[in-house]
Amino acid sequence: MSIPETFKNVEESSPMSRRDFLGLVAAWMAASSLGCALIGLMKFSMPALLPDIPKTFKIGRLEDYPIGSEKIFEERKVIVFRDQEGLYAMSLICTHLGCTVSKQVGQFDCPCHGSKFDAMGRVKAGPAPKPLSWLKISQLPDGKLDVNAMREVPMGTKFNIQNRVG
Ligand code: FES
């Protein structure tokens, strides 16, 4: 069976053959897939966005923290501990890509990529590149304490009323 002359002319006069068209569609789909994958990779590698909230916040008074106590400030992603030596605050933001770590017995676990930190915030398992941040605690004129989430202090720095370390 022969192709009617009319269709032959359309096919021959068309600037793009069916094969070319399908090749272009395949190339376009491959480029789209690659683009989507690249966008996904870029989003994956960016830290989680944090809400723009004041970085300094009140945590109460030293007496509010009996020795051995701890308190999590979920919205601030900070945990405050009290031990015999004083009060200290640690960031709960993973140093890998910014996920919030969860407090476990004697350690912190990151749910995103599996980093683990010991009770002092030191990295026990990667990919986190550095320890959790210890944050500055200050006493205000009214006796209340505040934490500055933008001011890191050396690991082990503790605040107490006698020597006001931190
Ligand atoms: S954000 Fe990647 S391990 Fe915590």
Automatic annotation (TrEMBL):
Q: What is this protein called?
A: Rieske domain-containing protein
Q: Where is the Rieske domain?
A: 64-132
Q: Which cofactor does it need?
A: [2Fe-2S] cluster
Under the heading InterPro entries, the entry gives: Rieske_2Fe-2S, Rieske_2Fe-2S_sf, Rieske_Fe-S_prot, Rieske_Fe-S_prot_C, TAT_signal
Which keywords, in A-to-Z order, does the entry hold?
Answer: 2Fe-2S, Disulfide bond, Iron, Iron-sulfur, Membrane, Metal-binding, Transmembrane, Transmembrane helix
Cite a GO CC annotation.
membrane
* PANTHER family linked to this entry: CYTOCHROME B-C1 COMPLEX SUBUNIT RIESKE, MITOCHONDRIAL
Tell me the superkingdom of the source: Bacteria
- Give an example GO molecular function: 2 iron, 2 sulfur cluster binding
Q: Which organism is it from?
A: Candidatus Danuiimicrobium aquiferis
